[in-house]
Amino acid sequence: MRSxxxxxxxxxxxxxxxxxxxxxxxxxxxxxxxxxxGTPIQGHARIIDGDSLEVAxxxxxxxxxxxxxxxxxxxxxxxxxxGCGREAARVLTALIKGRPVSCTMVTHDxxxxxxxxCVANGKDLGDAMVSAGYARDYPQHSRGRxxxxxxxxxxxxxxxxxxxxxxxxxxxxxEMR
Length: 177
Fold this sequence. Notes:
Elements: H1 2-25, E1 40-49, E2 52-55, E3 58-62, E4 65-66, E5 74-75, E6 81-82, H2 84-96, E7 100-108, E8 114-120, E9 123-124, H3 125-132, E10 136-137, H4 139-142, H5 147-156, H6 168-175
Parallel strand pairs: 3-8
Antiparallel strand pairs: 1-2, 1-7, 2-3, 4-10, 5-6, 7-8, 8-9
């Protein structure tokens, strides 16, 4: 008799815990905190990919550029596939060299990410990535701010321009549905 009582008690406790847990799952997701445009953020960066980083706990997309995605492949000058998305992240890491980064918020994108211009060691990271050939000017956002850097990288066949690549936005539309 006692074992039946304990079994029922265990079942009741399990149901209560499950009900409370289910209630937590139904709670709305917290609203992301975004920084107001013009606000500076400074600190050491954690690189996410070729055009995204985290500074002082804020996830930031670099203003006006578009770099290959982490899984994106390109072809080098010999026609060999390589991980150009990973390479773009490595180039951004090398540009920063562990130094503090200073970002100024410009806007927020459609995914509620902070979009900013960022500087490390006196260099605009967006300009440096495009100049190195591992990101493209994103004219619909930059209004051509990095167009000259892209022309220079293309003419010199630096980075992505040394081989063949698919525009990162085209790759995203196809691969990240």
